[in-house]
Amino acid sequence: MPRVGMYTYPLFRLSSLLNATKTLHEKFGNKDFTRDHVAQVLGQKSTSGGLSQKLADLKSYGLISDSHGKFVVTEVGIKATFGREVEKKEALDKAVKNIPLWRSIYEKCGKEPLADTFDLDLAEITGITAPESKNVAGTVRKSYMDDIKYMLSVKTPEEEPEPEKPSSGGDLDPARGRKSGMECQTDISGSAIGYIGYPEYSQAPIEIKDAISLEIAQKLLDAIGAKIKSTQRSVQSSSEKSSEQNVENSV
133 and 231, same structural domain? Predict the structure, then answer.
């Protein structure tokens, strides 16, 4: 495998190994197989260096595993080739993350490292000298970008859009310095799915992040609804009594 300082990375790209993984699983299923079997199925010489490299790269991505000279297609390999669409994406994401150098580059440079400065970044990541990095940076970057396209996107805090401001419904409450109406806001940047604040009924908002907190919020909504209905009935009753009194006085 090509070596860059303390790291190695696959010579074969992930996209080129998926067909081999698919063929092996179609032929052997969940049974193990030998190097000679692989050579026969893939049409290569069992003693060739190319086959040795391909087997090493299949293992690096986690598409196959070996024990005592026997190989088997892994769960990652099966899902990456025969899984449902979501399973395929997750398996390919895991395969990319099985390469330590790709993880380190992603953490420092993201999915699209700048070509102009990648040699400096690579030298810093791997510990090789600047001249060494300059010689291999182009090849490493090309290989990285071919594989990293399979990684599921993960937004960093800097990339997260700013949450929308709560609606301006309700009058300003001078005592609290905030709106007195109900405020609802979705927030997916943290563990909570969202929260609901009830300034008139509670100082603290309710974070909705599981079934229990959702049930609490629903009960509070029911309680507020009951209070509103009760208030409406009381106002209506007072209005009716006032009308009856006015009628009696007029008589």
Answer: no
